[in-house]
Amino acid sequence: MTVSGFTLISRILGFLRDMILMSIFGVSMTTDAFFAAFRFPNMFRRIFGEGAFNAAFVPLFGRKLDEEGKPEAMRFARNAFSTLMVVLGVGSVIAILGMELLMMAVVPGFQPKFERDLTNTGKGNAAWTVEVDTRGAKGIYIELEGASEEVRGQWAKRIKFNDLSLLRRNAETGEDEKVSVTSGELVVGGLTVSGEGGSYLDERGNVSILLPAKHGFHTFQTVVEVQQLQENADVWSADLRVYRNDPGTFDLTVKLSRIMFCYLLFMALAAHLSGVLNTFKSFAMPAAAPIILNLCLLGALGWIWSTGRVDGEILAWAVAVAGLLQFSALWLTCLVKKAPVLPMRPRMTPEMKRLFLLMGPGVLAAGIQQINLLVGGIIASFQEGAVSFIYASERVYQLPLGMIGISLGVVLLPQVTKQLRGGDPKAASESILRGMDLGLILTIPAAVAMIAIPVPIISTLFERGNFTGTDSVQTGYALAGFALGLPGYVLIKVLQPGYFAREDTKSPMIMAGITVAVNAVCSIFLFLILRPYGFGHVGIAIATSIAAWVNVFLLWRGLKGFMKTHRRDRKRMRGMVLASVLMGVAVWGGWLGLQDFFTHSQWHRVGVLALLVGMGAAFYAWLVLKLKVTTVADLKEGFGRGA
Question: Is the sign of the CA dihedral 551, 552, 553, 557 positive or negative?
Answer without folding.
Answer: positive
